[in-house]
Amino acid sequence: MTSEETTTEMHAELPEKDSDLVLHYCHATIRFAVRVLAVMMTGVVLFGIGDVVYVIYQRLMTPPLYLLNISDIFETFAAFLAVLVAIEIFVNIRLYLKSSALPVKLVLATALMAVARKAIVLDFGKHDAAEVLSLAAIVLALGFAYGAVHVFHSRYK
């Protein structure tokens, strides 16, 4: 299989060659936009890493020096997890560019990680029970969906 054949098979919904010239340019524009998003997400990851370093430095330099309290640790976790979610989104974009299939399992895992990040850094004292239960329901739904996709893929691969 040549490189051209592989490229035309990828993303049949956005073919590189289309008899309609307008659709051809629309598809090319969307494919270009996805590449731009990948570059931008790389920038977000780099800025996120800078934010993690800044948060740690700022917390360590605040009196008492070199000591972190529990809220400092949670802020550091939040910064770390935000970078990890950004990396997962980048992986989703990269897979979208390289594959003909939507990586449903990875998208669900990314969503689960983002919601888990929210749950980990959530200040339960500032939110009412309905908000906490809503977050729990989202985590359960995403976990169930991820498990169902995993079972489906393992059985029908």
Q: What order do the helices and strands follow? A: HHHHH
Quaternary structure of the protein: single chain
Share of β-strand residues: under 5%
Quick one: biggest sheet? none
Radius of gyration in whole Å, from Cα? 21 Å
Please mark out the parts with pLDDT under 50 across 5 or more consecutive residues, or reply none: 1-8
How many discrete domains? 2
GO cellular component, one term: plasma membrane
Pfam family, one: PsiE
Keywords: Cell membrane, Membrane, Transmembrane, Transmembrane helix
Membrane topology: Multi-pass membrane protein
Features:
2 domains, mainly alpha, single chain, 5 helices, disordered N terminus, 157 residues
Note the topology.
Layout lengths: L2 H7 L11 H41 L8 H29 L5 H18 L7 H27 L2
Helix pairs in contact: 2-3, 3-4, 4-5
Keywords: Cell membrane, Membrane, Transmembrane, Transmembrane helix
Subcellular location: Cell membrane
InterPro entries: P_starv_induced_PsiE-like (IPR020948)
